[in-house]
Amino acid sequence: MTIPPWITKDKASDSDAPKRFRISKGELWKAIRAKCMDCSADSYKEIVLCSIPDCSLYPFRFGKPLTPDALAKKIKQAETESDNDAENAAQ
Prior knowledge:
The protein is built from 4 helices and no strands. The protein is an all-alpha fold. It has one domain. The chain is elongated, with a radius of gyration of 19 Å.
């Protein structure tokens, strides 16, 4: 049995792999996002306020790359919404 050349290459490109193993960047981001939604019980707010920074998907949890400024803005917005929810529940 011969080993396919795309397995033994050090730097195999996507075009060398069989079609069933190729994944687009969009599909990859969707898969990461779906895993984060599953972990957070489908709560967007829980994804933003994720308390597991050791998770390998933590930096990618929004389903797309974010700049540090955009990330800080999302976190601040989610914390504000959480504070508002807590105040409304207390009333």
